[in-house]
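Sorry to interrupt, but I need a hand with the structure work. It will help me judge whether the discrete encoding reads sensibly. Write everything out right here, beneath this request:
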Amino acid sequence: MEKRKERPFISAIAVIFAAANIPLAWFIVESVFSPQKVFLYSPSPESEAFARPLSYLFFVWNMGSIMFAAAAPVALGCFAAFQFLRRKHRQRMSDSIENDSVENDSIEAVDLSRRRFLKMALSAAAAMPFAASFYGVVAARFGKVVERVTVPIRDLPPELDGLTIVQMSDIHVGLFMSESRVREFVEIANNLKPDIVALTGDFLASRRDQVPPFMNAISGLQTKYGVFGCLGNHDEYAHSERLLAREFDRVGFKMLRNENRLIDVAGARLNVIGVDFIGKNNNGEKLKSALDGISLEGTTLLLCHSPYPFDQAASMGIDLMLSGHTHGGQITLALGDFLLTPARLATVFLSGLFRIHDSHLYVNRGLGTTGPPIRIGAPPEITHITLKAV
């Protein structure tokens, strides 16, 4: 570019770079002085309108930077290997030409158009991680996927054959999940005309004052046999367990806190059980303690926010366990059927249907996000489950 055009262009880039990093500086400073209440993730309700664009800018810029940092060494290594092989090929071609060839000693002209193309290609490649980060924000905010799953249950009574369950999980009402968006999800769930709705925890993002907007929206759910829920770790972080249980009762839903409800379906009984959050570092005793005194006879449906205790649930003869918590990895790279994501370090039960003997687990990817408001390769999910006798 000409100098007179180059200066304002560089100045504009510098301003954009500085503006993108202001939220990062804010985040770091605030995390030092107020680590329990970070403004860019958990602002007060009156500050949300101001904090939301800053937060999106913060996460798009920094997730893009992280992806760039991860991809750059791989890309440079591939480019270096390509250049090395290219030089070797040219050298072999040169050696095959007669040494006294005049053309061999001529200087090759520089192709400026090719050089401009390479510069543009490099710029596009450098921008791709940030474009992917921005795409992840759009996918998290506007994506809505209904997954239809048929679960075979051994010895399922004929009356329960074809029973439908709609599962919703990890809604995370807060800065990045508004009441109006939850109402959209509720409308989708109602259009599926479920017999039962299972809400498998993490209803809030971080605070108790997020309970009213969540309940205002979720209370519109309509089912034949009821809405049942269990608590997630974020609900515990917000110290909202009792408040959520009371609000569920008020609207006619049931929060199952280490308890069960028997549903009569034309004479057949479905045993719906719910437990409080069980973390990764449990030895199986917490699930056994939670189910102590609860009858496991008949067809059993267990609502447990995390999929970690599925081994124990299967050993106890639970027919179907519904979980969330993993967000399907939230940011994943699909390599065939394998999903590459840090969440793999926590559990193999990342998303979808799993089986141990005659017990099944379904892990829902969730509707909201935690940490960055970004989803890549793991779109928001509402699950429509149909029980089938085998």
